[in-house]
Amino acid sequence: MWSYPKIVAHRGGGSLAPENTLAAMQCGLDYGFHAVEFDVMLSKDGVPVLMHDPDFGRTVAGSGSVATTLANELFQMDAGSWFDPRFAQVRIPSYEAIFLFCQANQIWMNVEIKPAPGFEKETGSVVASLTQKLLLAGGAAAKPPLFSSFSFDALMSAKLAAPEIARGYLLDDYEPDWLDSLRKLEAVALHTNQKKLTLAWAKEIKTAGYGLFCYTVNSPERGREIMSWGVDGFCTDRIDLIGADFVECI
Ligand code: G3P
Ligand code: MG
Questions:
Q1: Is 10 part of the annotated catalytic residue set?
Q2: What number is the ipTM of this complex?
Q3: What's the CA-to-centroid distance between 217 and ligand 1, angstroms?
Q4: Which of 31, 85, 88, 163 has the greatest count of CB atoms below 10 A from its CB?
């Protein structure tokens, strides 16, 4: 079942801020979002940082990759200029810094574990262990995130490291063994591409008793349609068009 926010800001601030940065989380907050999705990858020295692509070039100036760069070097890298010159001071953040920002601002997190190729198990394990440590340090007020990943191995490692932190399995498209995978992972939800979701599959997922979350919904009409199919929640890039209160407005 889905006991989480229904409308989630994708990569922090959707299309309104440089993705996976502190500025993005602040942007989501400014638009009234208390629920964000973001991507987490390991640096060369095994520190979880926010990053979508394994290689620089699209959101970070320069060449190279996250998995071959030390965290302290990553934290100096410009992650904002690509979006707009006014974000030139924005840097790649650590997962820990974003976790603490979200906890301090009552922002629910969907932490997408995004391993660089070859680092699936390690990434799942490190992210889960760190999350567990931060939750313990935060005390009773700390709110656990929901993990998700396209990597079965990463999620399985997260389950072994921190079984009590809930998991959603990401599939870009229908796969015949989806239910078997959810059971093995003891996942609470299936997360999928809204473009590939069919009414029939949505019904199967809901009948099986799982939460159903979609990415990335950028039109209110499509949001209304898939919610009428039983979709529990979705993330959006259009936080200006689809507000955090969208469901109440349907
Ligand atoms: O977690 C939902 C969505 O973020 C998955 O795709 O490529 O945007 O990380 P991507
Ligand atoms: Mg993502």
A1: yes
A2: 0.99
A3: 11
A4: 31
Looking at residues 107-112, what average pLDDT do you find?
A: 98
- The partner residues of 43 in beta bridges, in order of sequence, read none
Backbone φ/ψ region at 189: left (φ over 0), alpha (ψ -120 to 50), beta: beta
| 203 residue type, one letter | K
The CATH class, in words, for 7-41+100-249 is alpha beta
Strands (E), the chain: 7-9, 35-42, 48-50, 108-113, 146-149, 167-171, 189-193, 211-215, 233-236
Query: What are the residue boundaries of the structural domains of the chain, listed by start?
Result: 7-41+100-249
pLDDT in tens, 28-39: 999 999 999 999
Cα dihedral 184/52/4/174 (nearest 10): -50
* Residue 150 CA, closest ligand 1 atom number: 5
Distance 228 CA to ligand 2 centre (A): 24
* Ligand 1 binding pocket mutation candidate from 39, 51, 234, 239 (most atoms within 8 A of CB): 39
Place of tokens 């030139």: 88
Cβ burial of 137 (10 Å; 0-12, 13-18, 19+) is exposed
- Which ligand approaches the C-alpha of residue 216 most closely? 1
Condensed to tens digits (0 to 9), the pLDDT of residues 234-244 reads 999 999 999 99
Instruction: Please answer whether residues 89 and 7 qualify as being in contact, where contact means their C-beta atoms are separated by less than 8 angstroms.
Output: no
Tell me the best of 19, 112, 149, 172 to mutate to test the pocket of ligand 1, counting ligand atoms within 8 Å of each CB and taking the most.
Answer: 112
User: Contact at 8 Å (CB) between 234 and 212?
Assistant: no
Given the residues 52, 184, 222, 224, select the one marked as catalytic: 52
Q: Which residue, by CA, sits nearest to atom 3 of ligand 1?
A: 215
Residue with CA nearest ligand 1 atom 6: 215
